[in-house]
Design brief:
single chain; alpha+beta; 2 domains; 4 helices; 23% strand
Length: 162
Amino acid sequence: MQTTTPPSFDERLWPSPAGWLAVPAAAVMLGIVLWPVSRTAGLVAGVVGLVAAGAAAVAASTRVRVAGGELHAGAAHVPVTLLRDPRPLDPAATREALGPGLDARAYVCLRGWVRTAVRVELADPADPTPYWLVSTRRPEALVAALAADDDAGRAQEARPAS
């Protein structure tokens, strides 16, 4: 029987409340555009727009988690043992890191509605990516989870094989 351990950090980057308000607003605007042509077309377009905008909002909400000794950010993942010096970034530091401080080779998992992030250096000589910049609403918790998983991974690597 295989046991799985729960992730030490798991966050879904859902849109902000303003982002969710944009979903029905987009549907209403689509319905208004077609209302003069036909009331039925306006209603159908509004309903279809509501479903499509809702699906787009859900699809845009990526997941960030630390599980199984790896950091998962969107579709990418990297072993925690290859990460160094995780730093939480406040809104001002995140803005700086995404603007003038951004290295074009960095991996960025960004959601514009999340104002804080974590920057973590990548210590893989085979990978030209210098660091990861990951959006999160809980940067301190992500840093703590990375440190805990890194300590556990290093302890496991140090154990002699049996």
